[in-house]
Design goal:
Elements (H helix, E strand, L loop, with lengths): L30 H7 E9 L5 E9 L10 E8 L19 H6 L2 E6 L28 H15 L3 E10 L1 H9 L7 E7 L12 E2 L2 E2 L1 H8 L26 H7 L4 H5 L9 H8 L5 H4 L13 E7 L8 H12 L5 E6 L13 E2 L2 E2 L4 H19 L9 E5 L4 E5 L8 E7 L5 E2 L9 E6 L25 H4 L4 E5 L7 E15 L5 E9 L28 E10 L18 E4 L2 E8 L4 E7 L28 E8 L2 E2 L1 E7 L1
Parallel strand pairs: 3-4, 3-5, 5-6, 6-9, 9-10, 10-13
Antiparallel strand pairs: 1-2, 2-4, 7-8, 11-12, 13-14, 15-16, 15-27, 17-25, 18-24, 19-22, 19-23, 19-25, 19-27, 20-21, 20-24, 25-26
């Protein structure tokens, strides 16, 4: 959705992906290269309702490329600023890769409505209008259409073809731009696109508010009075140091205090307020679900995501499937690698924290997937159609190509919880069996085992041994595997639970447990960290593969939550984002269950309240949580197993 942790100027066509990728990369293009090869022009392009949108255009200079054109456009639309402003100012990075920059494109960056240099009113995830009755009915599709029409007529030496791409929020604008799109748009790549914020993207997961990342982001992303003074913009004030988010956010109390209280946002950011107060799947969220509108998509589409994207993990899959359903016949490809949010854009992609992938997957993507895609559809050269799904398989660390996603050979099987912390594909036969723990909101289970000042991207693959030692975390694991086991597709926890409280969260984590004799990395592999874990011992490492919360009050309805009846057993089912992971021979498969994951997820008071942000301190109470594992009430996790 937005740039979590830091609103950093990661320019992807000048647009920022929410978080700076953790990996480093080889030197990218420089301001000197851009200045020597491109000329810059700035426009204020009128939309059909009279609003003018600021747009920067970078055109290849004559004689600087072997190919003299005409050139296609490659555009990004962003709420994060098209800086630097001024036709004499050049960015330090231009385009989405060195390969495309050196091939020669007309690069375009547009500030969306109500942001930076553009007029109009900004809306969070501005809703799409299917039936436009007048020039006043405008949305991101119509704004892109009008922008393309202007560019085709006013920018010389173009070949009449347009590509569009962007990461995160710009990924949303990419998806929105290709609905009933301008016929000149021939190629589009929504990357980590925000799609449906209530279901698995930035805002809510399983009905639980993603606290740490949202609060960290909205401390910097504020509404603007537009257009701003582009040439006299004050520097962004430095945020106060917060060396321990667990401690500081716990001390803040109910999340509503972060919205209205001092020294927090003090009611000054209605963007955060809107995210926080819409705690059910109401019309605010429904009309912002872009996957409902992916009709009239005529461009070839390559949707990109990362298996370890902590922000918009579900968006790529929803976008991909929606295009297949609502725009059948469209060239539609899904690409997913072992990346954090935006990690494919300029990182090597060879590791995340202590997990390694044995190759520079980001470099491979940019050179051998992304570059040929745009070259083929915008220039008719240097490429070929991609497979339906081009996905990296973690565990084995290999790229796989499939004719469908999930793979057609994948079959649903359930890993059942067993007595004594066992886990297997065999359903329990005992007539009785239940595991219990006490969940205390005053001492929530942390999401990492070390002190951190942010939501570190590496948490998506971090070691879970710290959690398995806690009495408020249930742990189930298989015997060592005698052969490789591959899961490809969604993960679906299916729990039978009871609680002494009237509400509860259930966080389910799927984990790959390394053998005790797993070889150790070189002594300096972990690098030096100011905050974070010390160099890890990989023998017995419990690598997080996927984890998600589920708020029990939404077990029957996302629109109308209902309290638990203390002591009464109910089903709590959840849908977790897809994985493509092989558990190797000798490893174990582990599942952990807990009732807090702080401060990644807001705390459930464990007393039923309509709006948790407004819960009173005295409503946060201890509760005993029961998870059943018997023949009449079998709990487990459904996975898609590839033979």
């Amino acid at each position: 959705m937005k740039i979590r942790i830091a609103l950093a100027a990661v320019c992807l066509l000048f647009s920022a992906a929410r978080v700076l990728p953790a990996q480093t990369s080889a030197p990218f293009n420089t301001e000197e290269f851009v200045r020597a090869h491109y000329a810059k022009y700035e426009y204020r392009i009128p939309m059909r309702d009279g609003v003018k949108l600021f747009t920067s255009v970078y055109v290849p200079q004559s004689g600087t490329f072997k190919d003299e054109g005409p050139y296609p456009f490659l555009m990004t639309r962003t709420p994060y600023s098209c800086a630097p402003y001024g036709e004499d100012k050049m960015p330090t990075r231009l385009g989405v890769s060195q390969e495309l920059l050196e091939s020669g494109y007309i690069f375009v960056c547009a500030d969306v409505r109500g942001r930076s240099g553009s007029e109009g009113v900004f809306q969070e995830m501005s809703p799409h209008i299917d039936d436009k009755k007048s020039s006043k009915d405008v949305d991101e599709s119509s704004d892109t259409y009008d922008t393309v029409e202007f560019l085709l007529k006013h920018v010389a030496n173009n070949n009449g073809k347009v590509g569009i791409t962007g990461i995160s929020y710009p990924g949303f604008y990419t998806s929105a731009s290709i609905i009933d799109s301008h016929p000149a748009i021939k190629a589009a790549s929504p990357q980590a696109p925000m799609t449906d914020l209530f279901f698995g993207d930035d805002a809510y997961h399983g009905g639980a508010f993603m606290l740490g990342a949202n609060y960290g982001f909205y401390k910097f992303f504020f509404p603007q009075k537009n257009p701003i003074d582009l040439h006299n913009t004050p520097a962004r004030p430095a945020g106060e140091s917060d060396p321990d988010t667990y401690r500081s956010l716990l001390a803040a109390g109910p999340t509503g205090n972060l919205d209205t209280g001092k020294p927090y946002l003090d009611g000054k950011n209605w963007l955060f307020h809107d995210q926080l107060i819409h705690t059910t799947y109401d019309d605010y969220w429904k009309k912002r679900d872009l996957s409902r509108h992916m009709t009239g998509v005529h461009a070839a589409v390559m949707t990109v995501g990362g298996w370890f994207d902590a922000e918009d993990l579900s968006g790529p899959f929803k976008t991909f499937h929606a295009i297949d359903k609502l725009s059948p016949g469209t060239v539609n490809t899904l690409v997913v690698g072992p990346w954090v949010h935006g990690g494919w854009s300029n990182g090597d992609g060879d590791r995340l924290g202590d997990a390694t992938f044995n190759s520079k997957t980001g470099v491979f993507f940019r050179a051998h997937i992304q570059y040929p895609f745009f070259e083929f559809y915008l220039k008719g050269r240097n490429g070929a159609p991609l497979p339906k799904a081009y996905v990296f398989e973690t565990g084995t660390n290999v790229w796989k190509q499939y004719a469908a996603w999930p793979p057609q050979s994948a079959a649903a099987k359930t890993l059942y919880f067993q007595a004594n912390g066992g886990l297997s594909f065999t359903a329990p036969t005992a007539k009785a069996g239940v595991d219990e723990y006490v969940s205390d909101p005053a001492h929530p289970v942390p999401f990492v085992g070390y002190t951190t000042d942010t939501v570190p991207q590496r948490y998506m693959s971090d070691d879970q041994r710290f959690a398995s030692r806690r009495p408020d975390v249930l742990t189930y694991e298989t015997e060592p595997l005698t052969e490789d086991v591959t899961f490809s597709g969604p993960v679906k926890p299916k729990l039978k639970i009871a609680s002494t409280g009237t509400d509860a969260d259930f966080v389910v984590k799927l984990i790959d447990v390394y053998p005790d004799d797993y070889p150790e990395p070189p002594a300096d592999a972990a690098g030096k960290r100011i905050l974070g874990p010390p160099p890890i011992i990989l023998g017995g490492y419990q690598q997080l593969v996927r984890g998600e919360p589920m708020r029990a009050k939404f077990r029957d309805s996302w629109e109308k939550p209902a309290p638990l009846v203390p002591g009464k057993m109910v089903e709590v089912n959840a849908d977790m984002p897809d994985i493509n992971h092989t558990f190797r021979t000798g490893h174990r498969i582990m599942v952990q269950v807990q009732s807090s994951w702080f401060p990644l997820v807001d705390r459930n008071p464990q007393t039923f309240v309509e709006n948790i942000p407004l819960a009173k301190p005295e409503q946060f109470v201890k509760a005993t949580e029961s998870v059943y594992r018997n023949a009449g009430a079998a709990s487990g996790v459904e996975v898609m197993v590839v033979p």
